[in-house]
Specification:
single chain, alpha+beta, YdjA-like, Putative NAD(P)H nitroreductase, EC 1.-.-.-
Length: 193
């Protein structure tokens, strides 16, 4: 394994919004690799507290209708509903991210399960980048819409949002917006008594 190449993959990943994603999207084999990477995220007791639900092909029309109905129910006009529907149709593929948190687990508290979900999302997106694809995790008010949540979730599941996936139509422009590592990596010292 070339460790420098692996590290460069991590250091060069960036989010690509739906309007900058074009065909082709990942193949079934590439999606399987992305999920294998997600499954390598830290996961106390191997609970796998998440599912990735693919929205592609004709299913995109169904998601667009859900988004449009939710927009109208939220008080948006026809133009707003059409814009939300377009957001469902634009990316070559969308992956709904659903959490399955066991609130009564005797060994693994909920916050550790949520951390596993976040790690899985990060690994999934990094694997997509390594395979030459772009993606972005999206959420917003739609994840709290009961009709949309019911369409994606089984009982006990929580809809976190959607990963828009496809081939990036452009490279990122401008400076990175993340802080310097020194602002995040901090030496801890015990408090004086």
């Amino acid at each position: 394994m070339n460790h420098e190449t692996s590290l460069q993959t991590l250091l060069t990943r960036y989010s690509v919004g739906p309007k900058h994603l074009v065909e082709p999207g990942p193949s079934d084999e590439q999606l399987a690799l992305m999920v294998q990477a997600a499954l390598r995220a830290p996961d106390h007791a191997e609970l796998v507290p998440y599912r990735f639900k693919l929205v592609r092909g004709a299913a995109k029309q169904g998601m667009a209708a859900l988004f449009a109905d939710a927009a109208l129910a939220a008080g948006k006009g026809e133009e707003g509903a059409a814009l939300d529907a377009e957001r469902a149709l634009k990316p070559p593929m969308t992956v709904a991210v659903v959490a399955r948190i066991d609130l009564g687990h005797p060994q693994v508290p909920a916050h550790e399960q949520w951390a596993a979900v976040g790690g899985a999302i990060a690994n999934f997106l990094t694997a997509a980048h390594a395979l030459g694809f772009g993606g972005k995790m999206l959420s917003g008010a739609k994840v709290r819409n009961p009709s949309i949540a019911a369409a994606f979730c089984e009982p006990g599941e929580t809809l976190l949002g959607w990963i828009a996936l496809g081939t990036p139509a452009r490279l990122p422009a401008g400076p990175a917006r993340k802080p310097d590592p020194g602002q995040v990596l901090i030496d801890w010292h015990p408090a004086c008594k």
